Amino acid sequence: ARLVVLVSGSGTNLQALLDATADRSYGAQVVAVGADRSGIEGLARAERAGVPTFVERLDDYPDRASWDAAIAERIAAYRPDLVVCAGFMKILGAPTLRAFPVVNTHPALLPAFPGAHGVRDALEYGVRVTGCTVMLVDEGVDTGPIIAQEAVRVYDGDDEHTLHERIKSVERGLLVDTVGRMVRHGWTVTGRKVRLGP
Ligand code: GRF
To answer: Which sequence ranges are marked TM in the entry (predicted)?
Structure first.
C-alpha cells in the first residue's frame, strides 16, 4: 500500500512509520511526505530516508479553498491508498477527504480534549489517565470514527512536555500498529464503528 504522510513538526511518528515500512512484511511504503511549513525536522527525516517531500503553506494561497485544492492535488500525484496525518496541524478540506481515506493521531483519549492542545487541556482538567487516539478524519476537528486508543497515566509533577513525551512513546507504536493492520487487512465503517479486517 502507498502512504502519504503529512507532518508539521518533529516527525517522530513519521520516523516510526518509516522504520516500520523498511520491513516489506509491514505491507506499506511511504511514497511522499507533505507539510504545511518548511524547515521542520519531519521533512528532514523524509529526506534522509530518500522519500520525496512537498510543502503547501496556507499563507501562499488567497484563501483556504485554494489551499485545500492545492494540497489535495499534491497528495493525489502520489496515488496514495491511505493518507496519514502524523502531527499535521491543519484541518484537511473536502478535496482531500473525498478523494482518500485519511487517518490522524491525537494525543488524548477522544472525545475528551480534542483540538490543538489535547495534552495541556487534559493536564489542566486534572485527569489521572489520558492517552492517544488513532481515528479516521472527517470534516470536523477530531470528530471522526475512532479506530484505536491506548491509555497513558498522568503522574504527579507532570508538565505538558513530560506528559506529551510519555504519550508519544505509546502513540508511535499505536499508529504503526493501526496503519499496518489497516493496509494489510482493510477496514469497514458502520456508523461510528470501525472494524479492521476483511
Ligand atoms: C503527536 O503527539 C501528535 O498527536 C500531535 O503532535 C505530536 C506530533 O509529534 N498532534 P511528532 O511530530 O510525530 O514528533
So the answer is: none
